[in-house]
Amino acid sequence: MMYWIIFALFTTAEVITDIFLCWLPFYYELKIAFVVWLLSPYTKGSSVLYRKFVHPTLSSKEKDIDEYLSQAKDKSYDTLVHFGRKGLNVAATAAVMAAAKGQGVLSDRLRSFSMQDLSSFQTEDEPKSTSSITTQPASGQHRTRRHQKQTL
Is the predicted pLDDT of residue 56 greater than 70, yes or no? Predict the structure, then answer.
């Protein structure tokens, strides 16, 4: 764990030092040697740096760090609740809008199941043929029969 803490600090410092010190001769070779020194179990470089510099600094600032962590925990919970509510409101609004738009589209596509609608639906879907046989919708046949009965 000591190695990873020291390596994270090294990586952070490396971003700044690369900008200003890259012109030095053997700069990149020195960086590689430093990482090997940190990693080596014989030299225990990360352990040395951690015990001499990092641990005393963390120990002296322990109360401040605990306070910051507590504040961050409280703020993160409040932020989570705030954005959770906003997200639910957006999702609910989207669902209502989709339902409202979908209802209009759905009602346009639905048809009633009366005989007149079914017969007109069948004639619309039948392909036009060149034969001399013509079909009349059922509603037209009823009208013709009623007309014939009235004339008799």
Answer: yes
Indicate whether 104 pLDDT > 90: no
pLDDT average, residue stretch 19-31? 86
The per-residue b/e assignment along 114-137, b for 16 or more CB within 10 angstroms, e otherwise, is eeeeebbeeeeeeeeeeeeeeeeb
Task: Evaluate whether 137 touches 120 at the Cβ level (below 8 Å).
Answer: yes
Average of per-residue pLDDT values in the chain: 77
Residue among 42, 51, 43 at smallest CA distance from 2: 51
In order, the DSSP letters of the chain are -HHHHHHHHHHHHHHHHHHHHTTSTTHHHHHHHHHHHHH-TTT-HHHHHIIIIIHHHHHHTHHHHHHHHHHHHHHHHHHHHHHHHHHHHHHHHHHHHHHHHHHHHHHHH-----HHHHHHHHHHHSPP-SSS-----HHHHHHHHHHHHHH-
Closest CA to 7 of 38, 52, 41: 38
Evaluate if pTM is beyond 0.90: no
